[in-house]
Write a structure and sequence with these properties.
The structure holds two protein chains of two kinds.
Chain A: H1 2-28, H2 33-44, H3 51-59, H4 66-78, H5 93-128, H6 137-146, H7 149-163, H8 183-220, H9 223-230, H10 235-247, H11 249-260, H12 267-272, H13 278-287, H14 291-319
Helix pairs in contact in A: 1-14, 2-3, 5-8, 5-11, 5-14, 6-8, 7-8, 8-10, 9-10, 11-14, 13-14
Chain B: H1 5-12, H2 17-21, E1 23-34, E2 40-51, E3 55-59, H3 66-73, E4 81-90, E5 99-100, H4 106-115, E6 117-120, H5 124-127, H6 134-145, H7 151-164, H8 181-192, E7 199-203, H9 211-228, E8 231-236, H10 239-245, E9 248-253, E10 256-262, H11 263-268, H12 273-279, H13 320-324, E11 330-331, H14 346-352, E12 358-359, E13 383-384, E14 387-388
Parallel strand pairs in B: 3-8, 3-9, 6-7, 7-8
Antiparallel strand pairs in B: 1-2, 1-4, 4-5, 9-10, 10-12, 11-12, 13-14
């Protein structure tokens, strides 16, 4: 339990550091971002009163001492007040993020987990049975990983959606559906998510497979695996409990990193499929010079990376007892 | 008579059929090849027999095939290593027909391992799975080989095993990294004994430990052996250690056994120049102070054939036939005066230990060396620096001035 508490404490400090950095970074940019932002807001319509002040607080260029600005910034964050989006004026940034985040989390998260699990399993098998059909998957998957993602995605989109109409062309759900908890909408959302998920899995599975395969080959010659064999344990038990169990460690670290990028890392996918997720919003924010939205998304991405790392850190302590603090 | 003679000899050396039935593990003409561009013959036509309750030592320099032989005995060879020839049979002492280990199918082999024949590995540090608790690792053994055991029975048995090797049973929840090297070695030994096997192969079980812990572990092994009655194949490069703990000793050189003898006697009077060289390379704790000698040179490459005696280039006693004719392992004929036990030790020793003593050296071949082996290899007392050293464990022999080797 102390292990968990220590980890938690460490990540709280890291989150605070990230938030603080998010506050100070814009202050290092020369010029006055508030004026630029306000002029853009004026183009889209009349901003609500006090928005200039709020923006100033958010970007840390407001009036008052540095410390009071920082305090107001923290206060605004505590109320999820990230300012107003220019792109979707006058929707608050927090609301834009809240509506986009689930799409990305579910789709990219699921795809990443599937890719990891399948890749690790096949990798362990490939290392275990070197030279069999599983092993011959490696060149193929490595090739698919090496292809630029956007090109692979466009190719699959063209073939499976445009030419053969197996999957819908774009979007997160059918145009005729209204978002809500009804089967017709959920079915449509799943239908729209299969192709994007497939492209992510195809593009990333090779890395997991190759890494796991090589680690398995390495652990297979480790003494405890040889000893397990001498003990007459069943091949399945040796593979799962001894070889793969130890070989999976580096992959779990890699998984932590890729989980952190679930939120941010699929801009290309969401762009190709016009998927209504965070990556798509980020792209919109950049195209429209929507600083408030971009900054809000960056903050969410930072926190997501931290959260993912925390989860895997805790998981790692469970998987590898050596990383646990001694009692 | 070559190595093939060992089995026949065992039955006919005075102990009779009783002795033949007492053999628990027998390997005949085992050859192991590491395949490759130049195949390495790591073990060359080796035959050994292990008797019930005995400690058989296998000694030799690094790379002489000791561990490879051990892995072959367990059928644990992995490519590129393969058993090129040989038979390995195991009998459990109940009078049932011996099991042909080479003929076991995968499932039978799995069952055979650890229940009949277990192994303590060279590096105990790494022989335990680093990410699971000792409890889980003991359970793995019982779940596999004794699936009828209930969870609490497994727990109880595991704790008893830990207790048996002198580790607090509460440590069962520990992970390997929480144990010291000596404790890990004890745990590994406890695991090897979990199913009360007939034979435990110990491949350098104490090499990584300091001498104090080494001593503790050896005492522990000896105690357990007396208690449980299993046989041990003890492999090490530490000949002084082997002389102390083993009943019989096989000295390996370049993949072959060059001398196979009762330990107590070989300590006193080795028959092969290589054994002599090994004995001279470490100090005798109780004996007189003497000059230590290493064996100059290094073992030959095991790729391809070796013409003549493999040890000849390093041997101080080499003579003409050694370069061309390969000596075969043959029983020392102590009955002829050829390798007669010299000095005052002949009466008591020859009659008391009716065990075979085989040596692969032309010096002991009557036809090639009619004059008999030189002093020092003829069964006389080992000497060093002109001093006769008393190596008899019972100390009965009197040092005599006439037994200088050189």
């Amino acid at each position: 339990m102390r292990y968990v508490a220590r980890k938690l404490g460490f990540y709280l400090v890291a989150a605070w550091a990230a938030i603080t950095l998010n506050f100070f970074l814009p202050r290092l940019i020369p010029g006055n971002p508030v004026e630029i932002l306000m002029s853009r807001l004026d183009e889209s319509g009349s901003p609500p009163p006090g928005e200039a002040h709020r923006l100033a607080l958010l970007l840390g260029v407001g009036t008052g001492g540095l410390f009071s600005q920082y305090w107001h910034y923290l206060d605004a964050l505590a109320h999820f007040n990230l300012g107003i989006s220019v792109t979707d004026f006058p929707v608050p940034v927090s609301q834009v993020i809240a509506s986009a985040l689930p799409w990305t989390l579910v789709l990219v998260g699921t795809a990443t987990v599937i890719s990891f699990v399948v890749g690790i399993t096949l990798g362990a098998l490939a290392g275990w049975k070197r030279g069999t059909w599983v092993d011959s998957l490696i060149p193929t998957t490595t090739f698919l990983t090496a292809i630029p993602y956007f090109w692979l995605a466009l190719l699959l989109l063209y073939l499976l959606a445009f030419v053969f109409h197996v999957f819908p062309l774009n979007g997160g759900y059918g145009a005729s559906e209204t978002p809500g908890w009804n089967w017709s909408f959920i079915g449509s959302a799943i239908d729209h998510s299969i192709l994007p998920a497939l492209t992510i899995v195809i593009a990333s599975i090779g890395g997991w497979l190759l890494g796991m395969r090589n680690m398995t080959v390495t652990t297979l010659s480790d003494d405890y695996v040889v000893a397990a064999e001498a003990k007459g344990l069943s091949p399945r038990r040796i593979l799962v409990g001894y070889a793969a169990r130890n070989a999976v460690m580096p992959s779990i670290t890699g998984f932590a990193i890729s989980l952190g990028f679930v939120v941010s890392g699929s801009v290309a996918m969401e762009y190709v499929f016009s998927y209504p997720g965070i990556g798509y919003e980020l792209l919109q924010a950049v195209n429209n010079e929507d600083y408030a939205l971009a900054q809000g998304i960056f903050l969410v991405i930072t926190l997501a990376v931290l959260a993912a790392n925390l989860i895997v850190d805790l998981l790692y302590g469970f998987v590898d007892p050596r990383t646990r603090q001694s009692r | 008579m070559g190595a093939a003679g060992l089995a026949e000899v065992a039955a006919g050396d005075g102990l009779g059929p009783q002795d033949a039935r007492d053999v628990v593990l027998r390997a005949e003409h085992v050859s192991v090849v590491y395949d490759g561009d130049s195949p390495t013959r790591a073990v060359r036509d080796v035959s050994i027999e292990l008797r019930r309750g005995e400690v058989l030592g296998i000694a030799g320099e690094s790379g002489c095939g000791k561990s490879t032989l051990a892995y072959a005995l367990m059928r644990m060879l992995r490519p590129p290593a393969r058993l090129a020839a040989g038979r390995i049979s195991f009998s459990d002492g109940t009078g049932a027909a011996p099991v042909d280990v080479m003929a076991l199918g995968p499932e039978d082999l799995r069952h055979f391992r650890w229940t009949k024949l277990s192994m303590v590995f060279q590096s105990a540090m790494n022989a335990l799975n680093p990410v699971t608790s000792l409890r889980k690792q003991f359970s793995d053994i019982f779940e596999t080989h004794a699936p009828e055991m209930r969870r609490d029975e497994r727990e109880q048995r595991s704790r008893a095993l830990l207790d048996m090797v002198g580790i607090d049973p509460a440590r069962i929840s520990s992970f390997p990294h929480e144990l010291s090297g000596g404790m890990r070695q004890r745990v590994v030994i406890a695991m090897a004994l979990a199913l009360q096997p007939d034979v435990v192969i110990m491949d350098e079980p104490t090499t990584a430990l300091d001498v104090v812990v080494q001593r503790e572990i050896l005492d522990e092994i000896e105690r357990l052996r007396e208690e449980l009655g299993f046989s041990i194949v003890f492999i090490t490069h530490d000949l002084s250690l082997l002389l102390e703990i083993s009943d019989r000793l096989a000295v390996m050189y370049a993949g072959e056994i060059v001398e196979f003898a009762p330990s107590a006697e070989v300590a006193r009077a080795p028959a092969h120049p290589y054994t002599l060289g090994l004995l001279e390379s470490f100090p005798d704790m109780r004996g007189a102070r003497r000059q230590l000698h290493g064996i100059a040179g290094s073992p030959p490459s095991l790729a391809g054939e070796i013409a003549g005696c493999a040890f000849a280039p390093r041997c101080g006693y080499a003579f003409a036939p050694c370069a061309s004719t390969t000596p075969r392992l043959r029983e020392r004929s102590r009955a002829t005066g050829h390798a007669a036990v010299a000095g005052g030790s002949s009466d008591g020793q020859a009659g008391r230990v009716p065990q075979t003593w085989s040596v692969a050296c032309h010096l002991h071949d009557e036809e090639l060396c009619p004059a008999g082996p030189p002093r020092g290899l003829d069964g006389g007392e080992l000497t060093g620096d002109g001093q006769v050293v008393n190596r008899r464990p019972d100390g009965a022999s009197e040092p005599s001035a006439g037994e200088e080797r050189r």
